[in-house]
Task: structure prediction
Amino acid sequence: MSDLLSESSADYRAIYLHIPFCVKKCIYCDFYSKTDLGFIPDYIKTLEKEIKKRSGQQATINTIYFGGGTPSLLSIKEVDLLLNTIKDNFSILSDAEISFEINPGTVDFKYLEKLKNIGINRLSIGVQSFNDDKLQFLERIHTADQAVKAVDDAKQAGFSNISLDLIYGLPFETQSMWLDDLKKAVNMKTAHLSCYMLTIEPLTPLDKYVKNGKIKPLEHKSMSMLFKKTAQVLNELQFEHYEISSFAKGREYKSKHNSQYWDMTPYLGFGASAHSFDGQKRSWNHKSIIKYIKDINSGRLPVEDFEILTVEQKKLETIMLGLRTIEGVDLIKFKSQFHLSFQDEFENIIATILDQSMGSLNSSKFVLSLEGRICLNDIVETFAGKILADKIHE
Ligand code: SF4
Result:
C-alpha cells in the first residue's frame, strides 16, 4: 500500500482538501464530519504532512477545492498554510480556480476579505434556503438573514465567482414556496447556483424520521415537477443548465473543479475520507480522523483501500457522468477509450430514449433532454443492466 500512488503515471489536474468538521450536523447530511472542533489543529498539521508526502506526482493543477464539512471553521492562518503547502509541492497554474466552501453561520466580512487576499477566487456558499422555516427544518446553524449577509459580504470582499447551494423538495414545500426561495437566490445576482433535491440518505436523522413516520417525503411526481420548474425558470433567466443540479450565468462560471470530476480527469484528494483517482485506480483515505492522523504520523499513506476500475465500471461511469451534463456522452472519446461504437453497443436503449424525446443524438454526442434528466437514475440503470448482461454472456 505504501507506494500505491508512486506507481501512478497519471497527470493529476485537480486537488481536493476535505475539512471534516461542522458546528452541528444537519439532519439530511451523510458527509463525514465531526462536531468536536478540538481536533482541528492536529488535523491541519496532518493534512500538511499528507500533502508533502504525496508531492512529486506528475501534476498540472488547474483547480483546488476546499470542501467539507465546513472549511470556513478554519482560521485564515490555517487556510493560508494549506494553500502554500500545496503551492510549494505541486505545480499550480497561475489562473487556477481555487474554491472554498463557506457556511453563512461561520463567517464575517473580515474573514471573507482575508480569504480573497490569500488567493481564494471562488466561493461556494451553503445557503440552502432563504426561508427560515426550511432552514430550521434542515437544522442549519444560520438564519436567512445571515445567508443574505454572507453573500453581500462576499461580494463586498471582492468575490465575483460565487456559487450558492440551495435545497428544494422538503416534505412541506409547495411549488410557490420553492419559487419564492429561488427568486430570492436569483436576486442575489451570483454567478452560479447549485440546486439540489432533498434526498433521504440512509442512517441520517432525516431517514429515521421518515422510517418512524414522523415525516412523509415529497412524492417523486412533485419532486420531478420542482426539478423541471427550476430548470425552466433559470433557463429563462439565462442560466446555463450545464449539469443536473448546476446552473451557471455564462460559461466562465461553470465549476471547473466539478467539471473535471464529471470528465473523469485524475485528481488528488487530501484529508480524512478523501478520494483520489488516477484514471484507472480509485483510492480513499480512512474516514476516521484518528486513524488518518495515526497513519500519517507512522509514516504511512492514510489510504484505507483502493479499487482498479474494470472496463465495465469505466464504461458505466463514463456514461453516468456524461449523462449528468450538457456535454453528454462524447462518442469519439468513448470509441477511442473502449474501441466500441456507443451507438452500436447501446442501439436499443438509445432508440427508446430518442422515441420518448428524452435525449438527442448527433455524430459527436448523446445528450439527455430535460425530460431525460428527470429519469436519470432509471436510464443509468438500464445502461448498467446492458453492460452487466454483456459481461455475463462474454
Ligand atoms: S454543514 Fe454541511 S457538511 Fe456539515 S452537517 Fe451540514 S450539510 Fe453536512
Summary: The CA atoms of residues 79 and 195 lie 27 Å apart. Residues 22, 25-26, 29, 31, 33, 68-70, 103, 126 surround iron/sulfur cluster (CB under 6 Å). The two ends are 32 Å apart (CA to CA). The first strand starts at residue 12 and ends at 19.
